[in-house]
Batch of 4 targets.
Target 1
Amino acid sequence: MTNIDVFSSAHSFKEEDVRDKTVVIIDVLRASSTMVTALQNGAKGIIAVGDMDDASKISHNLDAKSFLMSGEKDGVTIEGYDLGNSPLEHTEDAVKGKTIILNTTNGTKAIRRCNLADRILVGSFLNLRAIIEYLEDLDEEAILVCAGWRGRLSLEDMLCAGNIIYELCEGQLSAEARDGAKVAFGLYEKFGDDIENSIKSSNYAVRLKDIVSEDDLVYCCQRSITQILPALNEGIISDINGKEQ
């Protein structure tokens, strides 16, 4: 198994910690799930931004018909944006052929913090198998970065990281595994039999319950429904599965 560490939130590491490493960004609710779904439905690519100023600057350099502004602040769609951070809004009719400028509270900021990494991938339950298969073939160290919520651990992200690790080690974690990997693995062992209800009861899901539809939560809990493998290349996140890596 690839040597894997897990960071519990986007604020739990220094940018230097990911230098020249393969990083998987995990934000189950909902940035990762939205990116995977948008690419599955034919989006041309995704530009992850750190804030509204960045989004505005980038949009001014693109043809108005070529992109959509997507995102949320504290779970609520940003005023003036085309779409929120709901994967269910990123339908084929809405996103096909478009570049998505995505601005979220946690997930896109986590991506920006990993700019020194050798490769940045986007993982979720939706593309779990694609992430696992990629990491199985990787010889170098990998880091699973859970976006968390405002610097705090999020159960849903750690469960996804734990699921990845559990599959990679076939349920037998080495005693020499990193502490972060042990924590994620242990959470998955305890709560992995009922992903949907575990996530619905998580702190972040409870915070979102009056903002986000239950359909969003249920959708994000589905495992391995697509082989989409988003990766960042020259500022654009696109699907690399089936392409030369």
Note: The first helix runs from residue 31 to 40.
Target 2
Amino acid sequence: MHRRRRTTLTVSAALLVAAPLLAACGSQAHPGAAAVVGGDRIAVSTVQAQVTEVRDAQGGSAQPAQGADQSGQLVRAKLHGIILDRVLDRASADAGVTVSRAEIQQMRQSAVTQYKGEKGLRAAVLQERWISPDQIDAFLREQIQLTKLSRVLDADPSTPAGAKILGAALTKASKALKVDVNPRYGSWDNKQIQLGDYKALWINQVTKPAQAAAEAGA
């Protein structure tokens, strides 16, 4: 039996905030696409919509995230997140991992309790993760996926050995999806599960919060 722990969404403060508007055009090979993953286009407009949601939420926040003039980081953060979501879906499917709506709701309620209300949760993930209110459930779903995938693989991502096992599963899924990023946003690194120069230390910034958060419902 797993010992119940308090839910936490502690996140890295290493992220920089920046959000110039995306250009309307994509690459010549994939017009209008920010990336192609598993043969499916991720439209520039899809990335832009997520960027706009965050910027709108920051505009109404009493504590807007720092560095709003840093070039391109928010755009890359959102594109990185969309690609990572597809990679996680593939790795989860390969391992037979599924996530129910009830699991997401349970984790959200635990997080709301941890942050002393919905307002506290929204402020925390916006400030530290650039996640707007409408993006929270998708974020929690990723956390559950990562934790359940780690358990299926018998990998503890807080250890070097466990991180290597989980990373190998994600790399395998990433390669299978043949991620093709519009060069204007960088290139996708299958080994690091990372977009270009966007320094998303996914083991620290995604997996550890996932493990801690989902164990609350174990």
Note: Residues 33-215 form one domain.
Target 3
Amino acid sequence: MFRRRTALSVSATAALLAAAPLLAACGADAHPGAAAVVDGKRITVSQLQAKVRDVREAQGKSPQGGQMISNTGRLSLATLNGLIFDEVLERAAKDAGVEVTRDDIQKWRAAAEKRAGGAERLKALWLQQAIAPDEIDAMVRNQLLLDGVAEHLGADRGQPQGQQKLAEALSKTSRSMGIDVNPRFGTWDDQEVILGETKDPWITTGRTAEQQQT
């Protein structure tokens, strides 16, 4: 899941989350202060908390903020899921020789804004999926990376066979990265390429908001 982000991950976030507070630093755990270690790179609890606060602050300013917060309660887990998946996708894209430019992102976002009925409408749709306004470009980039990796594999993301082929490639990448999640956040599943507690369908990450536009 493209989260934030996939993805995370973006799609079906509301159905996957239930109320939970921000989690504190790990203290005496194997990786003090780390929510996860991915290929030797630490994702710290403070980084995770900052991402969660960013979303909550944006949701709090929305007229539908209360409902958004209620629908995205276990945001810490969903956010960590997205952060880990981002690293896996980045590696898979690099291995496949896929690159995304700033111009690519701007074109995709401009088209999405047009379909949504304007930039503010698009921001509101993404926020419903727990993507803060300043994270939209990163989520768009993930979508383009996923499309690029799929194209490299000859996999059609719109078909079950294509999704399976892409999932197998990402699973292989995930296994190679030695992902270690702090137990209080759950366990990373290399096979499904998700944080076990979230069960977020990353393969459709990022497309929910786009579908809502139409």
Note: The first strand starts at residue 34 and ends at 38.
Target 4
Amino acid sequence: MASLLPQGINRVLVTGGAGFIGGALVRRLLADTTAMVFNLDKIGYASDLTSIDRLGPEAAQRHQLLRVDLTDADATAAAVRQADPDLVMHLAAESHVDRSIDGPGAFIESNVSGTFNLLQAVRAHWEQLSEERRAGFRFHHISTDEVFGSLGATGRFSEITPYDPRSPYSASKAASDHLVNAWHHTYGLPVVLTNCSNNYGPWQFPEKLIPVVILKAIAGEPIPLYGDGANVRDWLYVEDHVEALLLAATRGRLGESYCVGGAGDHGSPSERTNRDVVETICALMDQLQPQGAPHVRLISRVGDRPGHDRRYAIDAAKITTELGWKPRHSFEQGLAATVRWYLEHLDWCQQVRDRAGYSGERIGTQAPAQTVPAG
């Protein structure tokens, strides 16, 4: 249990720990280690602590919420001093591409300025640690494969792929990656970076593709499919990602980056077109909610996202070879579990959507998209 963290890592600061991936990481740390977990989160529209609160009183004693916006440099520095961490895992970010198209400023402020403020605060903390604690300290920056841009029909992203971001979101994450690398090379801050593919699973805020499709299918509403539906993504189950994060944070080589991607059945790649993902969800819904079948009839094409990257795919050989990580869930297994989870947690979905003022409408375009039959 406690072997998830090396000896000497007793205090972990997780930024964005009330988000989807951050929440999964916090839950794992509280369930399977004895560390104190400091959860720095501004509690934005997509933040939710329900899954953490359900862990019980013992976990609650080791979980401390620090409600701080990283764009506030003084508050960030004070939070780092309070947490006094042995390990920092930085996930806090504005992360939805469509929202970055409508409002790019928030992404620059949070992902670029916020990361800068955190790096400065962590650097000051690290520099005053005892020699023993400094030797074991790490800053783990969690990023996205979208910083690499768009692939053609062949090839995969790896740690040596040149950066080529295409959206305000991916550009802001690319900038934060460069800042982290600069603080390592200039100031000696001990850092590790990871770049992951599309995450999915329980507790994801229902504005991303998979929960949107599930909830539209449940409601019998048109299921939006951008453009021709042939855009390809690599899908990573969130619990598998958490295991990769913990390995990289504690065993990864300092100054190195690791790409993390998913898997399909029998170890095949987890690349799927958006149309394949939507149709697979519809087939699962036909089994689990047959009164609405065939759900595929609900698919409707809408205007494409501006600057929509055509294909992402991950070569995860480095983290597999160096750290022994492999995803335990195939896309088929993970997606089936995810669909069942959302069917069983409709009340939670409604609560978080109401709180965020989001009712499932399309975002990421300045004009309403025209809906046409899927054909």
Note: The longest strand covers residues 138-144.
